[in-house]
Amino acid sequence: MDAAKSDPEPKLSQRGWPDGRLDRNPPKVWLMMGHRAGDNTQVLALAEALGWPFEVRRFVYKPYELLINLTHGPTLRGVVKQESSKLEPPWPDLVISAGRRNEPICRWVQAQAKPEKHVRLVHLGRPWARFDRWDLVVTTPQYRLRDHRVIQQNKTPLHRVSAERVSQDASAWAPRLEHLPGPYIAVIIGGNSGPYSYDEAAAERLGREASDLARRYGASLLITTSARTKAETLGPLEAALDVPYYLYRWRPNDSDNPYFAFLGLAERVIVTGDSVSMATEACATGKPVYLFDLGVGWRSMRRANQRKRFVFWNPGDSFDFRAFIYLMGMRLGPKRITRDIRIIHDYLISSGRAVWLGEGDPPPDPPPLEDISLAVKRVRALFPERLDHQGASA
């Protein structure tokens, strides 16, 4: 997963319940940030939606952390301690994490707090430790996890899109884009993901197809790349554009990143299909969303296109060995070690929230996404003593 928006370091947050009441005795929350922007976005999304104070912890990992993490259980041996956040009492009541690298760290924190305190562990995405090591796992169907009492199966990833956030950023950016004729169509670009590659050929095709949509609506394009977008794809993209556009080249920790602004200013959104997080964020705006298929032939994201061709490769298709190996893992290996993002694509399309770019327009008035509220309810249920004290539940 990926996110085009890279926020500066969040500060300690204090928020209340959705109806404005403040928690009298809120749990102490730690957010364990990893190396993937998409994972961190989901961790922040859940923390912000919970409304409890939270503190951020970041880590630098040793090159051989995978071997340590797979063999040592709860440990900090895979962490470069002098370059990572300190982990010391007072211990938190709740730890929220995502990504394999932080799993041993979370379990180490829980072990240090015993027996005085039970630290609840909430993991987002796919855990590698046994499910019963966690108090709650919030996941999505792309990971194809089996049913379990701690598993919350959401339809889409968690997101940080809100009317307030996109409106505020849109207002700040609008004067800088007045030279472009409206309306606007946002183009959100990701990169390589699993068996799908965003290469120069895909970039050139995206430029052509986005221009076609813009001409149909007399629109300009607001384009932003992300952390996984390769620099060599920008030339072919721009060469194929033949409508007015603004291109933002992603930079890490840029406080002036226009990602949310583009979502707010655009009347329609094109998003590359490699990132289900960005696709979910686009759909959360309630605007028409078009998914861009990164591949053709055996590399297509659309199941119908794959069935039309030989399952692995055809003459004339570009070849990506890494993508080929991942695809073989999806088809022949254990489901536990790969993910199938086409499941999220199918849901967004079948539920009337998106269409493939070039296959018409999405239905009007798509239904709202409800996954964050479901996750918040499950997390708050981990603290029944606090809910009883408050006399209410989320």
Structural summary, described in words:
With about 400 residues, this protein is of the alpha/beta class. The protein has two domains: about 30-160 and about 370-390, 3-Layer(aba) Sandwich (Rossmann fold), CATH 3.40.50; about 165-365, Rossmann fold. Helix content is about 35%, strand content about 15%. The protein has 13 helices and twelve strands. The protein has helices spanning about 35-50, 65-70, 105-115, 165-175, 200-215, 235-240, 260-265, 275-285, 305-310, 320-330, 340-350, 370-380, 385-390, and strands spanning about 30, 55, 95-100, 120-125, 135-140, 150-155, 185-190, 220-225, 245-250, 270, 290, 355. It is globular and about 65 Å long.
